[in-house]
What does this fold into?
Amino acid sequence: MDSTTGRKKGAAAKLFLVAGLIVILFSVLLSGCARREGWGMVLWSVKGTAVKGGAVVPIYLKSNISKSYVIGLPDDNKTKIEVPFPSLEFFSSKSAAETRAREFAPYAALYLSAGRDGLPIREKPSVNARRVYRLRLGESVKVLSVADGEAVFTGGKALPGEWYFVQAIDGTRGYVFSNTMVLYEEKEGTAAPVIASSPAPSASLLDIIYAKPWRPAYYQIMVDDSTIDPDLFILRYGLFADAKNSQVRIELPGYSGAFSFTSVSQSGDWLVFEKSKLRIRFENESTIVADWSGTDQVLADEGWSQGGQAARFVQLDASIPVLLAGENSRRESELKAFFQRSSQLQSNGESTISFLSDTAGILSVDLKGTFEWSHTDQLPAGFAPEIPAEARDNVIKGEIRFGLHLGTAISSAWMGGFSLLVGDNPDRQDFVYRFENGQLVIAKADSVTLRGTTESLDTRFSSVNYYLVVK
It folds into this structure.
């Protein structure tokens, strides 16, 4: 009897213990749901809710996996919603969030919309700063503040506009110049402005095409990213429409064509140049697509690729000769920088420096921007420029141009790059270099991209090392 009673008491104790644990578990879970991780100050308004820019909201959960917060609504204590990280700024305390909200109040409802495809968000408020984000036509960014930045000039005149510190929808932050953007205020019942995808109806489409040359779209990318390549950014390239002679001429890297037409008709979005393969449509008032394939080709971001039959062109505000002059000046500075780096290996400051390799010959560089390369017979074919038939003593001579724009994939491993041009041969040879353990190391680079950058090395060849010849 006693043993039976004992077993019953033991079972009851176990049940009581389990029940207690369940109660404790539920209490922990419930308190976990109610516990706040912090507070957020809203940047991007959440559509369909009372969560507007500048609002302070509680944050109940932060997920690094989904890159999102679970927040409470200002007007509803029970409802919780999930929003992406870039939607708000995180604070540990409510007072800190409220302080930030007061600072942010003048900009809480302000947005900017891109009035042109490809506009850059820059690392600093300067047209020479690195681009960190490329905006699509009509894409909105959140205004965070007004910024003090460099004046922006075109044709020698300062453009009207302001620099703004902004955030893109993915969280990227940087600076934009407002001249080609639309500033708007978010209000109840209003939407972002619709940016026209075609010119104003009052303007004649053909008059716009005939007005002045159109430049390859990659020109704008080079200008925006400060990666101008003097062999790809020239006056020759573009779309040139001649109304008087009823002809449109297109010049691009690797392509040259002229289209004679009898008249121009319109078919949907396209202007059709009759009796030719050419048709043109407007993407916006400063961007056109020319197509001579007869199909709807998908264009690369640069607007052109070798062998293509369609290309994108833009109206370039800046002067090509002025931009080229600035780029050539930069490259001359890079030549001097190469000499300065070389001088660290020697005591005398010569106007010509020479480098010697047992397997790669002798490479001499002059401060005037010329080079001589001899004894290259042990190098694999294709590494060095071809020796001209008229060359004496098998010496390669020509122009050396420093200042290649290195892409992110190789810029950390190489100090810079240079191009070699020999005689009238239009094909240049590109190389990258660095100084390592008292030696000059060079490697053959692949051709520059239409973004103006050197992105990779020619994998057919290994790098070669040179010793400085001290005179």
